[in-house]
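Appendix C reproduces, verbatim, an entry submitted by the partner laboratory led by Prof. M.T., so that reviewers can inspect both the input and the predicted structure.
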Amino acid sequence: MEIPFDKILSSIGEGVVVFDVKGQIIYLNPHASLLLDYTRSEIIGKKIDDVISMTVGDAHNPLRDNISKVALEFKKPMNSSEHLETVFLTSRGRSFPTAFITTPIFMQNEITGGIFVFRNTTVEEKNKSELIKNREDISRLTGELKAKGDLEKINKLMIGRELKMIELKQEIERLKREKVS
């Protein structure tokens, strides 16, 4: 059975770009086309480092020539977790935070190209910010409750409630046993 790699890669919800040993793009899936604001015909055959523009860190220093260089020359994977903030700049001037990995492709112990996989992390960044804010709020509220002495009262009420629930469950079980007997 022949595996339809194009269909598989087209189904992935992350951008996938494959390039040859010269750094020229030979494949991109529809999600990559959508995220980069390029059509397939606009990008196929172009050098990956010329069409994918990223910035790294707060100063937004351009990260150029690294996608193909890491995969083809350094012969090792590189991912965005090795950097602070990584932002993509699209062909239409849109920008978004991203996570990515670029890896060489080996065939018979020779590098034949590389693959670049990436995704838009806007929602992840928003959720991360909200989580940090929620933790700060919980910490602040816990401090306020402790200061008022209310936290101890709430704990006693909760423990009392749990003990009452246990008693009620035991009473229900006793009544069920009596009914069966």
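The beta strands are 15-20, 25-28, 53-56, 61-63, 78-79, 86-89, 95-107, 110-120. Additional entries are available on request from the coordinating office.
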